[in-house]
Amino acid sequence: MADCIFCKIIAGEIPSTKIYEDEDVLAILDISQATKGHTLVMPKKHFENLLAMSGDEAALLFSKIPDIANRIVNNLGAEGMNVIANCGPIAGQSVMHTHIHLLPRTPNDGGPDFIHTPTHDFDLDEVAKEIIG
Ligand code: AMP
Ligand code: ZN
């Protein structure tokens, strides 16, 4: 897609730090490292985000992630990892080409805390009914 920065990276028109590439997927280091080794895994085909992908397209992308993620964790000596996809500007997506953030985690790494967010007192049965329809 013409104006997409990640399509330009995939095409080699903009430099990036690649850590994995095959015919379907590219993994690069995020230019802004939330933790050491913060990686973005993206399909080479342009989709706005995961919500715009079919199950098969998403499966192809996610099929590559465990190997990439384990290589990062093992070779950087991390103890775990956050795997995140921001879908849509309301969810914090700033680059509109599907990408999965991999954040290797080590103790006191200064990375984000996704666990201790405020909880809300929704009626779970009502919410489930709304979703299922
Ligand atoms: P998101 O906000 O979830 O859409 O994530 C987009 C990510 O892309 C951000 O973490 C940016 O730091 C990262 N980013 C933007 N431009 C580049 C670039 N040229 N090379 C590597 N990462 C980038
Ligand atoms: Zn793109």
Annotated CATH homologous superfamily: HIT-like
Q: Which hetero ligands occur in this complex?
A: adenosine monophosphate, zinc ion
Whole-number tally of structural domains = 1
- Report how far apart the termini are: 35 Å
Biggest sheet overview = 5 strands, antiparallel
Content of β-strand: 15-25%
Question: Secondary-structure element order, as H and E?
Answer: HEEEHHEEH
- What is the annotated CATH architecture? 2-Layer Sandwich
Low-confidence stretches: none
Instruction: Look at the helices and sheets and give the structural class.
Output: alpha+beta
Description of the structure:
The chain has 133 residues and is α+β, with helices and mostly antiparallel strands. The chain has a single domain, classed as 2-Layer Sandwich (HIT family, subunit A), CATH 3.30.428. The protein has four helices and five strands; from the N terminus they run H-E-E-E-H-H-E-E-H. Strands 1-2-3-5-4 form a five-stranded antiparallel sheet, covered by helices on one side. The mean pLDDT is 96. Zinc ion binds next to helix 1.
Task: Please specify the SSE layout and strand pairing.
Layout: H1 5-10, E1 18-21, E2 25-29, E3 39-43, H2 55-63, H3 65-76, E4 80-84, E5 100-105, H4 124-132
Antiparallel strand pairs: 1-2, 2-3, 3-5, 4-5
The structure holds adenosine monophosphate and zinc ion.
Residues 1, 4, 6-7, 46, 97 line the site of zinc ion (ZN).
Considering the chains and any ligands shown, give keywords for the structure.
alpha+beta, binds zinc ion, HIT family, subunit A, binds adenosine monophosphate, single chain, five-stranded antiparallel beta sheet, 133 residues
